[in-house]
UniProtKB/TrEMBL annotation:
Belongs to the glycosyl hydrolase 28 family. Residues 1-28 form the signal peptide. It comes from the Bacteria. The keyword Endoplasmic reticulum does not apply. Residues 32-64 have a biased composition (Low complexity). It comes from Serratia aquatilis. InterPro entries: FN3_dom, FN3_sf, GH28_Enzymes, Glyco_hydro_28, Ig-like_fold, PbH1, Pectin_lyas_fold, Pectin_lyase_fold/virulence. PANTHER family: PECTIN LYASE-RELATED, PLASMIN AND FIBRONECTIN-BINDING PROTEIN A. Residues 78-196 form the Fibronectin type-III domain. This is Glycosyl hydrolase family 28 protein. Coiled coil: none annotated. Residues 32-74 are annotated as: Disordered.
Length: 694
């Protein structure tokens, strides 16, 4: 089951401020541009009551009916929940997203109308605004040559060419295979912002020559961008050039833009990321406080971070642009002597970064090398230094209303974009090209609520989109919030340890995730859930539907509590971690070369006590997995254990003998053209069954 979240909101005063504050995308003369034919009055001092700041980023499954009491219009077949995501609008553009109607199998596209006039289709609009679109097109035109895979739908649209401080009305219609349209969706009204004051960092002394350290100049420009100075709002701009910098710190109510042909390049010197300005991942004190980490290249952090910052400490921040943020973490070439870049499946150049580890960082690292060396010289062990003293590309903490758009993300020394304890967060049209840098996750959300990820391209050195929620007894002691509410759609996942990943830090629960209409190619794992028993919590209420997966490197689906790569000393949670209430529906998988098509594992009480020294009252098991209309081809067999109360309906396998393998499983319904069984197996017994085929 998927639950909707309460709608985020801004105060009226904050919305008025934002009308002059926020600016992001270039207003190119494209087919989605709109001439201003609005008859709206601009006398209203604030945007209307149906704006991006007052909409829920995450979807639910409710349909709406429009019209008045005397003229009810059935909109059940129209696009649902049309909205402007949080802060996804500026002086000249508005981004729209919507949910598919309940019946959508015959929908081939969506048309968008502005003030009653057709301005374009979603599919064509993605050609202009989504870095994922060329790869999705190539997938269906060339990789899916047999027309076998689930067809994804594109359900967002970027409107450009709008007039500042003007209200527009938007509706969306579904387009069917016969060319006919549905009725209009409910109308969404949005006012564009006023023009903000532009602050060029070069006016503050930044050189942008790739050699001069521009940290102080850029930070001065950021500090000058305040509402007290510029009541209409302001935007800090990095124009064309290469700006070498150490750690930078953003604040509330501002836009930070890295423009096209501009690069924010991380300094290679550890001294430019002062540890005293860094952060602690969690506030735990037992069995010992966690080590402090250095700040990232781009930060939103309290001055004296203690491991927790409530959402709303900072607010209304946009990080946008067509430029590049490069962490300068590692040398090029996956191995010594390897190529610096490759041509990918559509002919684009992808950088290749060193696949390193702690005992090789002194040879392979750039910033990573400098930071680890300093920490070791200070007396920290190599293992702890490698784990805790490398900078990520961004660490953004305690923010209410965050929008990140358009950037290319390169070469972090540690993680890519980290969003901690924040709410109402949107990640749109980013290119994460960090493969195969060690620990180089694309986006990591920790204890955050109401997030949206769409139109992204991922080629990462670790997980693509990862969710975390603390671990062990400290979760309850410090009342950490669940990582709750996420909508992930219209992305292209290439290399990465997992496309959509829950864990391994699962303590406060990771919940209410919908991942739909994505393509996954070469990814190690499609849906990956991982933890350790004593971390506690787990993942629940997850919907993974309408996704196409090809050449998965290891396993399409993983549900494991035996994750060994991230070990943290902690006081154990009261119950072992568990994954439950997960629905996988309308998904196709062709090819995985190494491991099981579906892996589910757990541990007995005795096994956990032997392995970890902790005594739990129950086994570590999972429940409520529901797979429906899922097709596997050229994969390995399943390996399912410690699973209860689950269903596999119309799950078929091609070229996979003895595809079903169960151990320690209870009340498993297996229903297809070859099976109509309830599986119960205990002890050391193993049940192996043939699967249905198409």
């Amino acid at each position: 089951m998927f639950y909707s979240l309460p709608k985020p909101s801004l105060t009226l005063g904050a919305v008025v401020v934002l009308s002059g504050l926020l600016m992001g995308c270039d207003n190119a003369s494209n087919s989605d541009n709109v001439s201003n034919n609005s008859n709206s009055s601009n006398s209203n001092n604030s945007p209307n009551n149906n704006n991006g700041s007052d909409n829920n980023n995450t979807p639910d499954n409710n349909n709406t009916s429009g019209g008045g009491d005397n003229n009810v219009v059935d909109r059940s077949k129209a696009p649902q929940k049309v909205q402007v995501p949080t802060l996804a609008f500026d002086e000249g553009s508005v981004v729209l997203v919507w949910e598919k109607p309940e019946q959508y199998s015959d929908i081939k596209d969506y048309n968008v109308y502005v003030n009653g006039q057709l301005i374009g289709s979603a599919n064509a609009n993605h050609d202009l605004h989504s870095p994922a679109k060329p790869y999705i097109d190539n997938f269906y035109q060339h990789i899916d040559s047999e027309d076998w895979h689930t067809k994804i739908g594109l359900h967002n649209f970027t409107v450009t060419g709008l007039t500042p401080a003007t209200e527009y009305s938007f509706t969306v219609r579904a387009v069917y295979a016969d060319g006919k349209e549905s009725v209009d969706s409910e109308t969404v009204k949005q006012q564009t912002t006023a023009k903000p004051y532009l602050i060029d960092v070069k006016d503050f002394g930044a050189k942008g020559d790739g050699a001069t350290l521009d940290t102080a100049a850029i930070q001065s420009a950021i500090d000058a961008c305040t509402l007290e100075r510029y009541s209409q709002g302001c935007k800090v701009q990095l124009t064309e050039g290469i700006y070498k910098s150490g750690a930078l710190f953003l604040h509330s109510n501002m836009t930070f833009e890295v423009a096209e042909n501009a690069v924010l390049l991380g300094s290679a010197d550890a001294a430019d990321y002062p540890l005293e300005k860094g952060y602690t991942l969690y506030p735990y004190t037992s069995p010992a406080p966690l080590p402090k980490r250095p700040p990232s290249l781009l930060n939103v952090l309290e001055a004296k971070d203690q491991g927790s910052t409530h959402a709303g400490t900072f607010e209304n921040i946009r990080i946008v642009g067509k430029g590049t943020i490069d962490g300068n973490g590692w040398t090029r070439g996956i191995s010594a002597g390897g190529v610096d870049e490759i041509a990918d499946e559509v002919g684009n150049k992808l950088p290749q970064y060193r696949a390193s580890k702690e005992d090789k960082v002194h040879n392979d690292g750039i910033l990573a090398k400098s930071q680890v060396a300093v920490a070791v010289d200070e007396g920290m062990s190599l293992t702890e230094a490698y784990k805790n003293r490398r900078s990520s590309l961004m660490t953004l903490r305690g923010i209410r209303n965050l929008y990140v758009d358009g950037l290319t993300i390169l070469n972090p020394a540690f993680h890519g974009v980290m969003v901690l304890e924040s709410e109402n967060v949107v990640m749109n049209a980013l290119s994460h090209t960090t493969f195969d840098a060690n620990n180089a996750d694309g986006i990591e959300f920790g204890n955050s609520q109401n997030v949206m990820v769409f139109n992204n391209f991922f080629d990462t050195g670790d997980d693509c989109v990862n969710f975390a929620a603390g671990f062990g007894a400290g979760v309850q002691e410090f009342s950490q919030k669940a990582q709750s509410g996420a909508w992930i759609f219209n992305n292209y996942f290439r290399n990465g340890h997992g496309a959509v990943v829950a864990g391994s830090h699962t303590g406060a629960w990771i919940e209410k995730i919908r991942a739909e209409d994505n393509v996954m190619y070469l990814t190690f794992v499609g849906l990956r859930m991982k933890s350790r028993p004593y971390y506690g919590g787990g993942a629940r209420d997850v919907l993974f539907r309408d996704n196409a997966m090809v050449a998965i490197n290891e396993q399409p689906f993983v549900f494991t509590i035996k994750y060994a790569a991230d070990v943290n000393d902690t006081v154990p949670a009261s119950e072992p971690a568990q994954f439950r209430d997960v629905t996988v529906k309308n998904v196709t998988i062709d090819g995985t070369s190494k491991k099981n098509s579906i892996l589910v594992d757990g541990m007995t009480v005795a096994e956990m006590e032997s392995a970890y020294g902790f005594a739990f009252e129950r086994d570590a098991f999972h429940r409520g997995l529901h797979f429906e209309n899922v097709k596997f081809k050229n994969t390995k067999a399943t390996d399912i254990s410690f699973l209860r109360d689950s269903q596999f309906n119309q799950v078929v396998f091609e070229n996979v003998p003895a595809a079903w393998k169960f151990m320690q499983a209870q009340a498993i319904i297996l229903k297809d053209s070859a099976n109509d069984d309830v599986v119960n197996v205990s002890g050391d017994e193993v049940i192996t069954l043939e699967a249905a085929t198409e």
